[in-house]
Amino acid sequence: MEEDRTIEAPQYLRVKNHLRQGIANGRWVAGDQLPSEAELVALFKVSRMTVNRALRELYQDGLIQRMQGVGTFVADMHRISSTLTVRDLAEEIESRGRRHELRVHKVETVAATPELAGDFGVKVGEALFHSVIVHLENGKAIQCEDRYVNPLTAPEYLGVDFEKTTPTQYLLKVAPLSEARYTIEALLPSDLEAKLLCISKREPCLVVKRRTFSVGRTVTSVRLTHPGSLYLLEGGFQT
Predict the structure, then answer these.
(1) Which CATH architecture has domain 82-227?
(2) Torsion region of 73: left, alpha or beta (phi above 0 gives left; psi -120 to 50 gives alpha)
């Protein structure tokens, strides 16, 4: 008989997922008070420290508000989404009067690693969708998109015709965005990224790592790699 190698999710994830799923399915809506720490400790038979970690991560994800001495409440999703913009690269390129092309390198189902399981709130080994796509501007590769997708939020992802739409366009349509978290780093490309972008393995790249959420559930985790010599990140603000 084969040994069962299933790894149980950390205790805090059980608490976190219970609350997150309750928010996602409408059990608790914006402004509702969630169960107290003491109630969650009793319900899940875990320590207060475990419950506190779950609540802290939900707060960091923008899903709840915590008021000392009062309680924990579901955050206002409309307020969060109104300050967030994720723009599609194809629209960005076309707005410059250039031609956008997309080349699909890989679309598949993979098993969640421990790191991905933590990102998506699933068990290690559960199925996730994975795609690797290269975006071109006037025939020049400018972005390698390495993306993982939650099957629960986009069950038809593997069957999408990416000749007609981009992953970003499709995901924004099927899973309206409520929150995003990202980092931007200067890194060397992986072997695959260098090959797909037709650059040297020693060429510095601008790498954006982004996770997006829809009503409390992780939709996608993506690594966007751009050749440093071809990409400029800019922005501004007014006072």
Answers:
(1) 3-Layer(aba) Sandwich (3.40)
(2) beta
Domain 11-75 coded CATH 3.30.310.50 = no
Per-residue pLDDT tens for 62-86? 778 888 888 999 886 544 333 445 6
Is the CB of residue 224 less than 8 Å from the CB of residue 145?
Answer: yes
What are the backbone dihedrals phi and psi of residue 154, each rounded to the nearest 5 degrees, phi first?
A: -140, 70
Q: Where in the chain is the domain with CATH 1.10.10.10?
A: 11-75
- Encode pLDDT of 117-167 as tens digits: 988 989 999 999 999 999 999 999 999 999 999 999 999 999 999 988 999
Amino acid symbol at 95 = S
Q: DSSP secondary structure string, 51-96?
A: HHHHHHHHHHTTSEEEETTTEEEE--HHHHHHT-----HHHHHHHT
Residue 157 one-letter amino acid: Y
Distance, CA of 228 to CA of 230 (rounded, Å): 5
- This prediction's pTM: 0.64
